[in-house]
Design brief:
Bound molecules: NADPH dihydro-nicotinamide-adenine-dinucleotide phosphate
CATH topology of the largest domain: Rossmann fold
Strand content: 15-25%
Number of strands: 11
CATH class of the largest domain: Alpha Beta
CATH superfamily of the largest domain: NAD(P)-binding Rossmann-like Domain
Structural class: alpha/beta
Shape: globular
């Protein structure tokens, strides 16, 4: 086999990474679109991200998805060739090599907005509460504002991080100063039409500590986490009166599809693959 006839190589890099669904999703997209590729999981040491990325591309790798906790480092690494989305987020989840230069983008926002649209909750003219101020919140805050929400409040367990995120956004986009607020979890008073949990609290099997009565009638509660069963946040929201709840599997498949589009120039069918991942998740 000549090097040019070898399949293109991709991977998701993170720590931990063993539970990532990305290999399944990208192989499903490849089958759907007739692409030939190999997509692996790449566990990078916590202090060894840059070296792992260098080695991957030096060995002929074509593209990387980046997950926890490396998205900010990925952004710094591709700083000379970042998409506006990655630049605004300060975090990158998609890397690729073009003419010997490392490029980066952030597709989390596209994934979330696509899923909200599918669920019948486009953010335009809606009041949105975003819980969390980590990498995931950073990736979606600009796209949510850009989509025209009426109000967006970002709240966080450590409120100073929510305020820092607001300051970061306003330093680049002053026009959102009357729309974007920041605060602590106690400052969640609404009512909100869309409440998005971008914290990792569900990993600890507990919902974030939120006050009661935050949901508007017909509100959506969206957890970026996903699981075979409704997450603790989704259960909390249902008991608090949210009329609809959703987990983040649709966002995951949507952001993967946007990465696939960047790498291969073809947009796969998200819904077909989402149904397949949902079935796989249910089977354990
Ligand atoms: P980070 O580690 O960067 O941030 C974690 C955030 O969660 C911080 O805001 C932290 O608050 C908060 N937090 C953690 N534990 C609790 C708790 N018990 N109560 C309240 N807040 C808490 O993680 P990411 O932002 O990268 O990821 C967040 C979640 O989003 C993860 O579960 C991840 O799997 C998911 N995700 C899903 C995606 C998808 O496609 N569906 C894409 C990206 C992420 P503090 O600052 O106070 O520590």
């Amino acid at each position: 086999m000549t090097p040019s006839s070898l399949p293109h190589r991709y991977a998701v890099i993170g720590n931990p990474v063993e539970h990532s669904r990305s290999p399944f999703i990208h192989h499903a997209f490849a089958q759907q679109t007739g692409k030939v590729l190999v997509y692996d999981r790449l566990l990078a040491p916590i202090d060894g991200f840059v070296r792992a990325v260098d080695e991957f591309f030096a060995q002929g790798g074509d593209g990387l998805n980046v997950t926890v906790p490396f998205k900010e480092q990925a952004c710094a690494l591709a700083k000379d060739h970042l998409s506006p989305r990655a630049q605004l987020a300060g975090a990158a989840n998609t890397l690729w090599m073009q003419q010997g230069q490392l490029h980066g983008c952030n597709t989390d926002g596209v994934g979330l907005l696509g899923d909200l649209q599918t669920l019948g909750f486009p953010p335009r003219d809606r009041n949105v509460l975003l819980i969390g101020a980590g990498g995931a919140a950073k990736g979606v805050i600009f796209p949510l504002l850009d989509a025209g929400c009426a109000q967006l409040r970002v709240i966080n367990r450590s409120p100073e991080r929510a305020h820092q995120l607001r300051d970061h956004v306003l330093s680049q986009a002053r026009q959102f100063r009357n729309i974007l607020q920041a605060g602590s979890l106690d400052e969640a008073q609404g009512p909100w039409d869309i409440v998005i949990n971008a914290t990792s609290s569900s990993l600890g099997d507990t919902p974030p500590a939120l006050p009661q009565g935050i949901y508007a009638p017909d509100a959506l509660a969206y957890d970026m986490m996903y699981a075979a069963q409704p997450t603790p946040f989704m259960r909390q929201a249902a008991s608090e009166g949210a009329s609809q709840t959703a987990d983040g599997l649709g966002m995951l498949v949507g952001q993967a599809a946007a990465s696939f589009m960047i790498w291969h120039g073809v947009m796969p069918d998200v819904q077909v693959v989402l149904n397949a991942v949902r079935r796989q998740l249910a089977q354990g």
